[in-house]
């Protein structure tokens, strides 16, 4: 009997009832730990990004939105560190700030040398790269890397740029890779619209000294509408799968694959088992005893009226994203964007948007869950 069948037999009863399971009654999911939340400074804390460093420290990033929850609010790009697996967190560090325009879309990458790279945008018009060589305690001065995005201009005359959001990856050959999206805005005033849009990747083959553009993966078309916020993940053979948010009528997550992560992308396909309410989602690869799995998390509101951002659900593929037989509800309530991190011990952490302190709508807090992988392996 193969590995997949054994898993399905063991966990079948659990997953048949998972759609009604509460987030706190599962033995393999911890209680929420609040990492960021609205306070006297921030009206909303949105757009989570999360990585585990090579030393096991968790670094959580987000946009601290000032005055309102708007995408165009005044903002601080903020971060917190945890050295005890997310139980407690150091104070907020401000990495950059912007008045009159946004600073955000944090996209962190941890490389094999222990350096933490962070890509982000300002005013959806310029892109920057900063690094930490001391486990996230301090950060370099920002280096502008808009030049990498400008190389799209002859092919795609973007008016809006953004990396990620959420973590990028390092490939087996050392390449640093981040998903990006661009918009050739149909409307320029009072704010540049985020559509029509396309997705691609940018990459560095010299540990972040320089950045290059990849080929456009998907553009607005009859096949897929306005592809945007995406996330790369390594498959079992070392190739890259790009998980793509899109508002297409099918309401399904879109996938494309590439051996290099920068060119020769496959035709986009929709994952029938991954409902997408048009929301950013997180994906990560897991390995244990030579076994490989993909873990995907998003608000699965397929069976909820009007498909709100609700019912944060983890789904698992054991065949590189072809099928998704395992499922667990993490939070049946309000939930939006998320990011995933895996430490060297195989512990999995999810940082996600939800409402606390009786807040509603996009007045989000960011909370952390630790997910035991025993239900997967």
What this model shows, in words?
The protein has 377 residues and is mainly β. 5% of the residues lie in helices and 43% in strands. It is built from two helices and 26 strands. Strands 10, 11, 12, 13, 14 and 15 form a six-stranded antiparallel sheet that branches. The longest helix has 14 residues, at 3-16. The two termini are 15 Å apart. The relative contact order is 0.16. Residues 3-26 have low confidence and may be disordered. Residues 56-350 form the Sialidase domain. Its EC number is 3.2.1.18.
- Indicate the structural class: mainly beta
Secondary-structure element order, N to C: HEEEEEEEEEHEEEEEEEEEEEEEEEEE
C-alpha termini separation: 15 Å
Mean pLDDT: 92
Radius of gyration, in Å, reads: 19 Å
Continuous helix count: 2
What is the quaternary state of this protein? single chain
Low-pLDDT sequence parts: 3-26
Estimate percent helicity: under 10%
General form = globular
User: What profile does the largest beta sheet have?
Assistant: 6 strands, antiparallel
Count of strand segments: 26
Strand content: 35-45%
């Amino acid at each position: 009997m193969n590995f997949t069948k054994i898993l399905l037999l063991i966990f079948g009863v659990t997953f048949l009832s998972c759609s009604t399971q509460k987030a706190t009654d599962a033995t393999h999911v911890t209680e929420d730990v609040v990492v960021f939340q609205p306070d006297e400074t921030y009206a909303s804390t949105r757009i989570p990004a999360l990585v585990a460093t090579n030393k096991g420290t968790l670094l959580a990033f987000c946009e601290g939105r000032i005055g309102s929850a708007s995408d165009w609010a005044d903002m601080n790009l903020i971060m917190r560190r945890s050295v005890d697996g997310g139980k407690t967190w150091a104070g907020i560090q401000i990495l950059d700030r912007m008045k009159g325009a946004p600073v955000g879309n944090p996209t962190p990458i941890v490389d094999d040398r222990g350096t933490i790279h962070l890509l982000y945008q300002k005013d959806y018009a310029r892109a920057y790269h900063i690094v930490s060589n001391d486990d996230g305690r301090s950060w370099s001065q920002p280096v502008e890397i808009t030049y990498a995005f400008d190389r799209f201009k002859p092919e795609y005359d973007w008016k809006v740029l953004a990396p990620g959001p959420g973590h990028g990856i390092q490939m087996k050959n050392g390449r640093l890779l981040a998903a990006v999206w661009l918009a050739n805005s149909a409307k320029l005033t009072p704010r540049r619209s985020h559509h029509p849009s396309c997705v691609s990747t940018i990459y560095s083959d010299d540990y972040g000294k320089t950045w290059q553009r990849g080929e456009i993966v998907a553009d607005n078309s009859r096949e897929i509408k306005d592809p945007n916020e995406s996330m790369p993940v390594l498959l079992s053979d070392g190739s890259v799968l790009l998980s793509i948010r899109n508002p297409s009528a099918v309401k399904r997550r879109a996938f494309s694959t590439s051996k290099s992560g920068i060119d020769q992308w496959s035709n986009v396909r929709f994952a029938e088992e991954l409902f997408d309410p048009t929301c950013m989602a997180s994906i990560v690869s897991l390995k244990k005893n030579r076994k490989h799995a993909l873990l995907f998390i998003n608000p699965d509101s397929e069976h909820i009226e009007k498909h709100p951002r609700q019912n944060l659900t983890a789904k698992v593929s054991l065949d590189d994203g072809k099928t998704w037989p395992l499922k667990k509800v993490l939070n049946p309530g309000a939930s939006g964007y998320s990011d995933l991190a895996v430490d060297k011990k195989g512990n999995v952490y999810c940082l996600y948007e939800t409402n606390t302190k009786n807040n509603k709508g996009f007045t989000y807090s960011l909370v952390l869950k630790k997910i035991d992988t025993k239900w997967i392996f």
